[in-house]
Structures are given as structure tokens and as C-alpha cells.
Amino acid sequence: MIYRLFILVFFVVFNFAFSEVYTPETLKEKEEFSKLQKEKIIIALIDDPFYNLSYPNINSLNTTMENFLKNYMQLNVTFKKVPYKNLQRDIKSGIINGIALIPKNQIFDDKLDFSDSIFSEELYVISQNESIHSLNDLNNKIIYTSHTEPYINILKAVLDNNDLHAYPIPVDNLKKYDEKLILTTNPVLYKPKYGIKIGHSPGIAIALSHKYLNLIPYINNALNSNYRKKFIDQLNTLNRSISYNNFYTSLAPEEKEYLKNHKPIKVIYEKDTDSLVSYKSQIDGKYKGIAPNIFKALKNNLGINFVDITSTDYKTITDLKTKGFDATVLSKTQKRSKDFIFSEKIYEVGTYIINLDNSPSSSKTIGVLKDSVEEHIAQRYDINKNIIIFDDFNSMVKALDDRKVGNLLVTNKEYFDSNKYNIILFETIPVNFMFNKEDVVLRDIINKAFEYSIDLKNFAELSQLERDAENKIVYLKNREIKDTLIIFSIVFIFIIFAISVYLYKERLNKKNLLKDSLTNLPNRFIFDKFCNEENSLTGSTFVIDLNNFKNINDSLGHEFGDVILKEFANFLKNSFIDSHIFRISGDEFYGFSFESHEEIIGKLKKYKDFCPTLLKYNITFNLGVSHKTANISLATSFKYSDLAMLETKKEKSKFYKIADDKFIEKMDRESSILSLLKEDISGIYPMFQPKYCIKTNRIIGAEALARYSSLELGPIGPFEFIPIAEKYNFIHKVDYKIAKESIVFIRDLLESEVSLDNFRISFNISMKTFKRDDLITVLTGLLNYFKVPGKYIEVEITESIFILDMKDLITKLKALKNLGIQISLDDFTAGHSTAGLLPLLPMDVVKFDKSLLDSLEVNKSKGKIVYKNLTSLIKDLNFKIVSEGVETKEQLEFLKFLGVDYAQGYYFSKPISKDEFTTEVKTL
């Protein structure tokens, strides 16, 4: 009886001592913690699909949090599930005293204190339908998010750092939008086809009201002692369970039956490969890499039992036909596809051309291994007589060294010393798992595992990290062995390096110091060398570009085109005997001459006007000439010549242009402005020129005019930066920036509760921007994001836009109208005659160009007749009229007499700043 009592007491004491209950270490801490345990605390559990998710025998993260606070820490806590969007409200009202599993953020800083991080998650943008491959694919897109503000802020920061913009829209249920773009930390919940990682979430923590600050250190200690690892294990288990569930529910009945009864699946790897796909470890002799890691994950996570038999039993591909093994890793080829089946691609490896310098006539031959993917690739590009097939790798390399074969096509470039061989990337090839033709069910299971459970990209990154770590270990081990020889090794390596560099430079010189094979003129390599070494020369540089040459090649053939190039090259050599002439590209020639501009232009003009070949085939050329002085480099002088040549193509008045000081100053300033605009368009801002109702003399809106200011160049007029933006194809960035600022301006007025009846802000959309496919998406996104109705916006287009496809133009105009946006035709009669098109277009307003009013000063009577008739025409078409450039009271009275609706110009106001215009509007 006493024995039994002793046993009972022992078990009670043992259970108490080792039960899962948090206990502070010191007596003082125990006393303080005991008081804290008695305080009533209401904790919000975020009502999130992932945090609520559980499986049989697997608790949800929220349940794990309940066990931690209530059972492990034994706090007097009540839990309440709250959607994230209601947390701030409930904290502020005192309904809750804290939040569990919340990302650390500054939003709650004034109300809550945070524990140490429990875990962190990765943040993704995913979609089932929309293809995403890089951050650029998110530009100007709508992205649906949860209400978790820290995640939205991370997304905005990442996009902003990459000069991109998107429109995050918080929603209650992301599942409804999984066919769109969504932001999530749990992509496995949505089975996406596409996705990219944005970054990491802030640490997930426990946050308590300031009055419970003293409890935070105990929570941190409890997490450190045991529970942080439990949370992380729980997180990983849930992710694996979701992945497995996604995978298993995708299987057909026969696939599930296969998994239930399958025998170990025997795998072999290529023995003579050092690829990241699979390689033999130098440390433990096991096969590692992408493929082994995938097989390991399939075994551990999905229960598919793969066994590596590479080292125990030598097999060939033929044995796969007879079921000597079940799977291997090879590239898919047409020949192999006749006998085997393949999984989806698991990786891509490069194939490389390997050769020696100065190879004899056999250089056209190429060596490949028998039955390899390299053999298949070689047969696609060359004839069989040039392809030499080898049974083993070593004999193939020996044949190259003995110059019995000119080139090798291989995948394992690591074998070849770059000091001895030329190594040239030829083509990347996909790598797959290969199976017996009968194993269709196994192949389909593996493909479904790739789709629903295995992230192949992550395996490539993981395998590279493992290999880097192994290489480092091997390197340190080898260095330890060779420490005693280090001095001799350094000397030896230095000598070899010096010799290798010398030989490399010699080979490079022999290889590149060649003349153009067609014209026998020096090539670009010699041109670059000339520019680097002869900067002290003074004279003239010139650049010539032949026109209509592509048509000659297309119509008469490249051989005839080559004859013309040779003839032109011979003319240059014979005409500029003491000069340096180069053929840079197909139909472009560069030259340096000691002759004057006039002499160079004269010779080329005479040749252009009297050469029978050029005249017969309508071939012309453009010429740019620059004076090379001692204080500028040859490269700079040639740059100015090239710019001058390009300018002649645009001007079309003369075939030549001289890059004089004025031209160079203009180009340098344009280059400076271009560099600033490319680097940052934050200096673009709007000025607002008010529009007035002529009848009431009240402001009815304004035109937002683009302006630019930089720290380097100060204010830059639109007559400078607008043409540059158009020329270099980023005028859309300027248009979209002004559109955004205009919409934000309206948003600010609405939030200030300013009355905006019949009030609109207009901005210009250029022809190039109007051609873009994203125009409607961007404007829709801006209006939705800033919650501004389209009725406050007016888009101005110019008459030049009518050269676009009329069907596409009308479609886009109607789309803008559907948003409530008003359409205005700007600069009417400023350079195009489009009156006949007006009835066809969904327009609202026609803006008469300032030149119409200016014409009244030249011939008042005729000018008034023109203005009156145009006004009558536009009114008959039921369009409103805005008269631009009103500068005098007399002009205003004339417009009032004609019944013109609106006016803008210096008589009323010059363009003013946002703040000044805001003041004007608020006084209406």
C-alpha cells in the first residue's frame, strides 16, 4: 500500500514539474507574473482564412495561439475573432486589449506594444489567369489585397523603388478575386498558376495595450523557451498540409490507387555530369542538386517513395525501356520521345560550344556524345557529315586537343579551362524527368505535384545555396591541406596568370584586329582602338548612313547589296586617301579626315549627284560632320557627327549637317534634359490656367499644364522637355503624371467639401500616349484609386490624333466617355483640317486655337468672318466652345457677342500654382 502511494505521489510531482506550463525563473518574476495572470485581457484573433485553417490532428494557428496564452502562460484571457479592418476601431473603443498574430507596424504604435517576432512570412502577388513573370508585369495594374495595411505598404514600397505603380484595392474575401491579381502571404490557399515573390512580411507578433506593457517580457521569454518553434513548425505543417491537400484532390482515382500500392521508384542520375541538376557530392559521395532535392521533397511531403540506385547499379537508358529502373533526369528530344515520356520542365541548362584558337580546316566539324541531347541539337543546326559522335567524354576532349574535331557541344562547361578553350553559350535546353512509356500514371502524378505542391524555382535557389556551401567547405578543406605550400602556390599561380593574360591578349588581338571581310575596311574593333589611342588628332569626323538599302536587299538580294557596299567603300578609300575610314555596321560608315568640312561635303555631294549606281537604284545617304579639336575626344566628336546625321534624316532639307557650336550646345542640353527625365520625373508638376464662363464671368475649371523644374538646370520650359519626351517615347509618363496630379487635385477639393458643380480639370493626352493599350486601364485605375468621379475630368486631344486608326480612336474615346470624362478637341485649326471628322467623334468641347484670335489683329474684318463662321459651325454640331488666348477686353466682348461659351487666357489669368488655384476655387 505504501509502495503504491509512493508511486502515485511520484507521478503527480513528475507531471507537475514537467507539464507544459510557463514558469518564470526568479522568485521576483514569479510574484509579478502571478499578478499579471489575474488581470482580465480580451485578445483579438484576426479572422483570417489561413489563421483559422485546420486539418484533422492539426490545429489552426489561432488555436495554437489560444493554447499558448491560455494553457501554457495560464493568462486570464478571453478571445474574440475580429476582421483586420475592424482592429483599429475595436482597439480605440476598448472592446479589445490586444491582438494576436499581427504584423508589426507603426499604425498601432500609439495604442499597442509588440512582442518579439514569432515568425515571418513571404509576400507574393499571384493569379490563376493573369501571367506574371516580373515586377514590370504589375505596372499600372489593379491588385486586390486583404485589409492588412503593412502588406499593402510593402507592395507600394517595392513598386516605388522600381519606378512602377499599381492600384491596391483592399477587399474582404480574396478568394473571390483569385482570377485577378491578389497580394497574399499564403499562395497555396489559391492554387495559383502565376506568381512572383514581392518580399517578406514584417514579423508576426502579439500586441497588447500599453497598460499590459509589463506582460510583454514574459511573453517573449515564453516564446524563446518553447513556443516559437511550435508556431514555426505549425506554420510549416499547415503549408505542407495545404499543398498535399491541393495535390491529392487533383488526383484521378487511378492515380490515388497508384500511390496507395506503389513499390519504391528507382532513380538513376547521369554519372559524368557536374550540373546543378544533379552532381556527386565531394563530401559524402551522395547525389545532390535540383533533381535529388525534388525527389526528396516528393518522398517526404507527398509520400512518393523514390530510391537512388545510381551508385549501386550501373544502368543505361536502354534499361529504362526494360524497367531496370523507373526514372532518370534528361532533356526531352524528338528521338527520346519515341521511346519514353517526360514530365514538365524542372530546370534549364546551357549548352556550350568549346573550341581552340587557330583550329585548322576541321573547324566546321562538331563533336557530341552518343545519344545525348547535344547530338539532337547539333542535328538541328548542321548536316550529319559535320557531326562526329563519341562514345565517351574523355575521348571527345582528346580529339579536340589533337585537332581532329573543330568544336565540341557540351553542357558541362566547368570541365574546360577558359585560358585554353573558347567557351561560348550556344543554347539553353529544358531538363525533365524521363519515364518508361508505360508509366503514364506516374508521370501525371509528378506533373500534378509540380503544379500544386512543388515550387521548382525555389528548388533551383535552394540547390544553388547548397552547392555554394559545399564548394566553400571543400575550398576550406583544400586550403587547410595546402597551407604549407601557399607561398609556392602564389608564385606559381601568378606566373600562370601572367602567361594566361598575355596569351589571352595575344589571341584577342589576332582574333579581333581584322578588317571587315566584305569591304576590307577596318571594323568596329579597330575603330574603338583608334578612338582610344588617337585622341590628340585634329581634323574632321564624319558619319554616313545609306538610305533605301534594305529595299535593295529585299528586292534584288543581299549579293547585289554587297556589290553596292563594296563600290561605296572603294569610293571612300580612293577619295579620302590620307583619312581613316571604318565600316561600323551594315550600311553605316565612320571617317576621320584632315580635310575641311567643305572638302568632305563637296566630294560626297558630287558622288551622290553623279554616281550611276546610286541614281539608278534611288540610293541616297545622310552625312553628319563635326570638327575634331584637341580638347575633345574622338568618341565625342563622332557622337556629334552621328547626331548631326540623324538630324538630317528628320529635317530632310539637306543630305548633310555640320555639328557646329550651336548644334552641339543644343544636343548637350537635350542630353542633359533627357538624362534628368530618364532618372526621375518627380520634377514634373502641373500649373493651372483657369477657364471662365463668358456669360457669368465665373471659373468653371482649369487646364493642367505640364511644367518641369530640376535642381541641376532649374525651370525647363515645355517647349523643351515635351518634344524630348515625345522623341524618346516616354511622353506617356509625363501625361500620366499630370493626369494623376489633376485627379488628386479634384480629390483634395472634394475632401475639403468645396462645391464643384459643372467644374472640370482638363489635361492633355498626346498622340503617342493615346496609341498605348494601357491608356484606359491607367485612367480607370487612377479614378478608382482616388475615388474621383469622371465627371470632374476633361481629356484634351489635338487634331494630330486623327492620323491614328479611326476605329481604335473612337473605341477609346467612347471608353473615356463611359467613365464620365468629357472630351475636348484642343488647338482647333492650328495645323490640321479636321472639321469634316467632327460629326463622327464622341466629342463635347472644341477649343479654338489662339491663332484665330491673333488673326483679328492682322485683318480684323476677315478674321471676324472666319471666327463667326467657325463658331456657328461648332454650335450647329452641338459642341461647347472654349476660346484660347484671350488677352484683351475687346476680344472678350467679341466672343460674348458671338455666344462663345468659355474662355481662357492672360486677360483672366496666367497659369498659376496648385495652391493659388485652390484659393481661387474656394472663394467661388
How does this model look, in words?
The protein is α/β, with parallel strands linked by helices and 924 residues long. The chain folds into five domains: 119 residues, 3-Layer(aba) Sandwich (D-Maltodextrin-Binding Protein, domain 2), CATH 3.40.190; 80 residues, 3-Layer(aba) Sandwich (D-Maltodextrin-Binding Protein, domain 2); 79 residues, Periplasmic binding protein-like II (D-Maltodextrin-Binding Protein, domain 2), CATH 3.40.190; 133 residues, Alpha-Beta Plaits (2-Layer Sandwich), CATH 3.30.70.270; 248 residues, EAL domain (TIM Barrel). 44% of the residues lie in helices and 21% in strands. The chain has 32 helices and 35 strands. An eight-stranded mixed barrel has the order 27-28-30-31-32-33-34-35, surrounded by five helices. Helix 18 crosses helix 19. The radius of gyration is 38 Å and the shape is flat. The N and C termini lie far apart (99 Å).
Principal-axis shape: flat
CATH superfamily of the largest domain: EAL domain
Q: Rg from C-alpha positions?
A: 38 Å
Instruction: Provide the structure class.
Output: alpha/beta
State the major sheet: 8 strands, mixed, barrel
